[in-house]
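Hi there,

I know you've been waiting on this one. I reran it after we fixed the sequence typo, so this is the corrected version. Both the input and the resulting structure follow.
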Amino acid sequence: MTWLIVALVAYFLNAIAMVIDKTLLKKGGIESPVVYTFYIAALGSVLMLFVIPFGFSVPAPFVVLVSLIAGAVFVWALILQFKALAKDDATRVISSIGGLVPVFVFILAWFVLEENFSRYEFCGGILLVAGSFLISLDFHERGGAWTWLKKKMGYTKFALPHIRQTLWLALPSALLYAISSILTKFVYNNTTFLNGFIWTRLGSLLAVLSLLLIAKNRHDIKSSLQKGKQNNSNQKNQRFRFLFGQACGGSSALLQQYAIFLGSVVLVNALQGTQYAFVFVLVIILTLFAPKLLKEKITQEIVIQKIISIILIAVGLYLVTV
């Protein structure tokens, strides 16, 4: 399955990009999600310019409209995702969004694209989503009815899981990603891959340019550019990380789009669960060996939870390839 290999490589590269995003979206890095999204869209536009000579044409007007909407919606999903990343652990945010995207994609694809799945693919997709969702749960102690009940019953060592507050950013972000994926698949069904990629990236460019209509965004972007001109070692390090991360992220986006072009948009999105395993390993490595860049809380309970999640994802991955 060519689409499967392409998707796995894409999610590995995206895991690298997302971990780097987290190191930059903390205090002292790029603090504005809008500014960060602006940079990403700008680099995407450069990539679009390089691709234009190899496959540009003007499709039907409705396809053009859908392409522009798909690209614009993707930008808004990015902004919400980066807002969540600035507030919470990378592993939690990425897995929360990724666990929800396949659910939305499945529902939308069922009604819009009328995709059908074998029994194994359906069961595998369910396990992929379950594993992705489990890794996003938080088992820390909280107040509320359950805490009151435990105290009354004398149990104080166990807590029900709860969803992070960043879910209110992750939920709409996941929905927008799903809408963008479905619309993008529709575009690929009606034009060539490169042409569809160009038109959807153009939609992203128009969306990010619209952000400049807001004075605060213009000020933040200008300030960031001025700050970026500094030549101290810290700024150089941040610029290198940003460019390397976006090289990985840009390659990932292109490969993920190609995987959607080749295969099922539902299964490609469900495979995002493999990305969490990559992120988990990368975060552990940075936490242990480069805590100044990124340090997240790692306990025995968290490790067990994520290992179980990864097992579910692995079984789901096996089923979709049967």
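Quick highlight: The longest helix spans residues 233-262.

Best,
R. S.
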